[in-house]
């Protein structure tokens, strides 16, 4: 069955290619562009194998694979447009990138909705790597394609039996082939045609079809008000019982006078015949009971602020962005600064030379910039990736957990200043590849007789 499903996938890709060659949107001469054909090879190869193995596993993994297949289909439409059209303006380009961006968001949202799934590890591996499809919006491939360490992590997470091992290998091979594809055909970003009309927003394919689970229903009505009449009557009865209890306690030693004397023939340890009989239990005063507590008030819903991308004086404000993979600031000046605040699962690209960049309280965000004459600051963030295209003198990392910095050939003299941060790695280019170097997190300080001397240490073992 797995071989048959794989054959069907390959036939579907072949039919799609034939339809594309007979319809509009092709490059000159009616033939598919060379890099579109190479991309079709990835779809008919590793992607088809991954979809086939996902169908074999079934359930949520199969549904997730269908979304990945749709994401690659949306990216192929974009490549077809680029192969026959010249590069448009940034506004039109953002519109053309929307189907790919929405497909990525759909894959990530499905994982969040399926946290109780038995295959949640599979969904997480796919969800955390699918942003690599955002390479079409980048200048260089740098940080968008998975590195080998991340691939090993995914393998350790989901490997259980042969089917799952093959599933991991097929999925990892998708990104390996995509990385090689980008290096061969799109080394400086998405390659556009040098002839033909300028691409327009109408050339964008329809948005990714809605899939996955519907949004959660709105919260129900608040609980009914508490009946106070029952509580007040119960409080009066418990007050009388409490008074009776205190009155009996205040008798002191006289309280024992009401106790009944037990004769020898009534003691169970001396009369075995009495042990099988159930002695009557005398009801005493009930303990004091507090009134029925009021139900806790439901917490107020979290306030969602609107996303912001605007120039305020000399400051570019990028705030409250959620899942925005195509944020671009292109019209920049040397005196301007960029401030990104509370952005989640988003990617920001800053073109030109600018004074400084600050990323504050952001999660899972990517930052790509050309040149900065001042400083780049990363503050109170989690899982941040920064790529330098040109030069920057200083990068400051404070109170951040997880930060990857990709340096360029011209920024190797950059100073990295860190404090109260963890999981920091600097990636240095070498022979067309990046070498990952960790930033020390543990230090040793000793007194040498005149001053304190601090050196980085490594944890043994």
From TrEMBL:
One Pfam entry name: CAP_N-CM
Keyword presence, Membrane: yes
Keywords: Cell membrane, Membrane
Stretches with biased composition (Pro residues): 206-226, 288-298
Subcellular location: Cell membrane
Record bears the keyword Lipid metabolism: no
Membrane topology term: Peripheral membrane protein
Occurrences of domain C-CAP/cofactor C-like (ranges): 306-452
Chain residue ranges for the region called Disordered: 202-241, 264-306
Record-level Gene Ontology MF annotations: actin binding; adenylate cyclase binding
Biological-process GO terms, alphabetical: actin filament organization; cAMP-mediated signaling; cell morphogenesis
SMART domains referenced in this protein's UniProt entry, alphabetically: CARP (SM00673)
A Gene Ontology cellular-component term: cytoplasm
Similarity comment text for this entry: Belongs to the CAP family.
Protein's name in the database: Adenylyl cyclase-associated protein
């Amino acid at each position: 069955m797995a071989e048959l499903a794989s054959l069907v996938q390959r036939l579907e890709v072949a039919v799609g290619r034939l339809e594309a060659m007979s319809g509009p949107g092709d490059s000159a001469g009616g033939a598919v562009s060379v890099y579109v054909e190479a991309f079709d090879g990835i779809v008919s190869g590793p992607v088809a194998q991954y979809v086939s193995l996902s169908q074999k596993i079934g359930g949520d993994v199969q549904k997730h694979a269908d979304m990945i297949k749709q994401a690659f289909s949306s990216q192929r439409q974009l490549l077809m447009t680029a192969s026959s059209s010249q590069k448009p303006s940034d506004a039109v380009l953002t519109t053309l990138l929307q189907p790919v961006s929405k497909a990525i968001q759909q894959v990530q949202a499905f994982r969040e909705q399926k946290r109780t799934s038995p295959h949640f590890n599979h969904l997480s591996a796919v969800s955390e790597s699918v942003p690599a499809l955002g390479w079409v919006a980048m200048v260089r491939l740098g940080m968008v394609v998975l590195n080998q360490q991340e691939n090993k992590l995914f393998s350790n997470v989901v490997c259980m039996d042969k089917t799952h091992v093959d599933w991991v290998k097929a999925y990892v091979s998708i990104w390996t082939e995509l990385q090689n594809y980008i290096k061969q055909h799109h080394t400086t970003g998405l390659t556009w045609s040098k002839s033909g009309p300028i691409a327009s927003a109408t050339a964008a394919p329809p948005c990714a079809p809605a899939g996955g689970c519907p949004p959660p229903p709105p919260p129900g009505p608040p609980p009914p008000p508490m009946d106070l009449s029952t509580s007040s009557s119960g409080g009066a009865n418990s007050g009388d019982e409490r008074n009776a209890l205190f009155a009996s306690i205040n008798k002191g030693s006289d309280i024992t006078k009401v106790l009944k004397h037990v004769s020898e023939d009534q003691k169970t340890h001396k009369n075995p015949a009495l042990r099988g009989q159930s002695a009557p239990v005398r009801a005493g005063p009930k303990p004091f009971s507090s009134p029925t507590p009021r139900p806790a008030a439901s917490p107020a819903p979290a306030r969602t602020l609107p996303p912001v991308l605007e120039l305020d004086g000399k400051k570019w404000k990028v705030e409250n962005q959620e899942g925005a993979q195509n944020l671009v600031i292109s019209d920049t000046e040397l005196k301007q600064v960029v401030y990104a605040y509370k952005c989640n699962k988003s990617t920001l690209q800053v073109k030109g030379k600018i004074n400084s960049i600050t990323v504050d309280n952001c999660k899972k965000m990517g930052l790509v910039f050309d040149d900065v004459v001042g400083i780049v600051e990363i503050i109170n963030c989690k899982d941040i990736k920064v790529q330098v295209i040109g030069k920057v003198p200083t990068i400051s990392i404070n109170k951040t957990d997880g930060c990857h910095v990709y340096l360029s050939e011209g920024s190797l003299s950059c100073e990295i200043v860190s404090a109260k941060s963890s999981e920091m790695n600097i990636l240095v280019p070498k022979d067309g590849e990046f070498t990952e170097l960790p930033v020390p997190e543990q230090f040793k300080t000793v007194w040498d007789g005149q001053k304190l001397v601090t050196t980085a240490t490594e944890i043994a073992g």
